[in-house]
Amino acid sequence: MKRHTLQLSSFLFLLTITFASSLVVSLHAGLPEDFASANANLASGHADKALSTYKTLLTYPEFKTSGSAEIWYNRGLAEMQTSDAVAASLSFRRALLLDPSLAPARIELSKTLGLLGIPVPTGWRERTMQSIHPETMIVTGAVIGWIGALLLVVLLFQSSRRKGLIILSLLLILFGHGASVMGTLVDPRRTARNSAVITAKTAPTLRATPADSATESGTVEPGTLISILSRNGAWWYVSTGSGPGALQGWIPSNAATPLLSSSKGSS
Predict the structure, then answer these.
(1) 8 φ, ψ to 5°?
(2) CATH architecture of 33-120
(3) Considering only the top CATH level, what class is 192-258?
(4) How far apart are CA 107 and CA 58, in angstroms?
């Protein structure tokens, strides 16, 4: 019976390692030859040509809905070379939305926000995403948790229960499902549907009500990430964050671009 339990434990351990290792391998969709051509133009200083190609690539059916972190990142680089830091901030954010662990995009976003005079987010969510992809945390955590649950069920049906293995199975359950919850919390896609970036050339004025004549309550700098709390026709009620210095108010919807590139009105 003890040998059977050890064999089962070894099998579950190897299954966990095998599955987790398979997640390390990234399977990227093949990019068209135009992408290499655009990259060559970008490297040779022809940012306008490269930017035009990146924009075209993002209209392709395979990228229009799901997007491509690599294309959005390179588009941001091209926009920086054409002196459009606001547009670049949106592109880098979209690249990180698709791949939160894309370090070059995070570095360039920090530089861009610095140029725009916007504070760089440095919370626990950002630090976690720099270390591990949220999707990896969610999937790997779920697998480890279920393996722990399976091991616990097997042990409970055995006549001679080993306390050590039961404790191990409980730890696997707690750690695995805890990692899944953490991955869900840090995943930027969870709140992206109601997020946008100020892309107007001048800072829009926050107003108390959705009307041009309403009382002003501040302005929002171009490049700022905002949360859309409510919509009223051509007006959005937005917030610049959750901290003590956060601002809220109504702005024209055309002053911002949704973070999700597939959202209505985005580009």
Answers:
(1) -65, -45
(2) Alpha Horseshoe (1.25)
(3) mainly beta
(4) 22
Question: Distance between CA 23 and CA 65 in Å, rounded?
Answer: 23
C-alpha to C-alpha distance for 15 and 56, rounded to whole angstroms: 43
Q: Which residues in the chain land under pLDDT 50?
A: 1-2, 4-6, 8, 11-29, 263-265
pLDDT per residue over 170-182, tens digit each? 898 899 888 888 8
Strand partners, 144: none
Token pair, residue 28, equals 């990227």
pTM score of the predicted model: 0.72
Confidence at residue 126, expressed as pLDDT on a 0 to 100 scale = 66
User: Can you tell me the distance from the alpha carbon of 124 to that of 46, in angstroms, rounded to the nearest whole number?
Assistant: 38
CA distance 190 to 139: 15
Say if residues 210 and 252 touch (Cβ distance below 8 Å): no
Distance of alpha carbon 228 from alpha carbon 243, whole angstroms = 16
